[in-house]
Automatic annotation (TrEMBL):
GO terms for molecular function: transmembrane transporter activity. It is found in: Cell membrane. It comes from the Bacteria. This is Guanidinium exporter. It comes from Rhizobium gallicum bv. gallicum R602sp. Its main location: membrane. InterPro entries: EmrE-like (IPR037185), Small_drug/metabolite_transptr (IPR000390), Small_multidrug_res (IPR045324). Pfam families: Multi_Drug_Res. Belongs to the drug/metabolite transporter (DMT) superfamily. Small multidrug resistance (SMR) (TC 2.A.7.1) family. Gdx/SugE subfamily. One of its GO terms (biological process) is xenobiotic detoxification by transmembrane export across the plasma membrane. It is a multi-pass membrane protein. The gene is sugE.
Length: 104
């Protein structure tokens, strides 16, 4: 269950990271509210996950999921560039996440 909560926390991290773009410097009320809600949910879920998972592993996986998800959403939603180097780096992050999961 802790891994599932951690995965959800990572997804909400993607939500608030992408949401920051839509807040326009926190000047748009609805995107700002949704972004802050995503932040709170992400942190709460991370807090629940670390009750049973090692903090270093959980934090690294949480940020890794957030990083990979945010990069992919940036490519899909915002037209961020797609290069072999970027995709290779994403693959390395995913490998690190899988490695951490397998070693706990």
């Amino acid at each position: 269950m802790a891994w599932f909560l951690l995965f959800l926390a990572g997804l909400f991290e993607c939500g608030w990271a992408i949401g920051l773009k839509y807040t326009d410097g926190f000047t748009r009320p609805m995107p700002t509210v949704l972004t802050v809600i995503s932040m709170v949910i992400s942190i709460v879920l991370l807090g629940l996950a670390v009750k049973t998972l090692p903090i270093g592993t959980a934090y690294a996986v949480w940020t890794g999921i957030g990083t990979v998800g945010t990069v992919l959403l940036g490519i899909w939603l915002l037209g961020d560039p797609v290069t072999a180097a970027r995709l290779g780096c994403i693959a390395l992050i995913v490998a690190g996440i899988v490695g951490l999961k397998l070693t706990v």
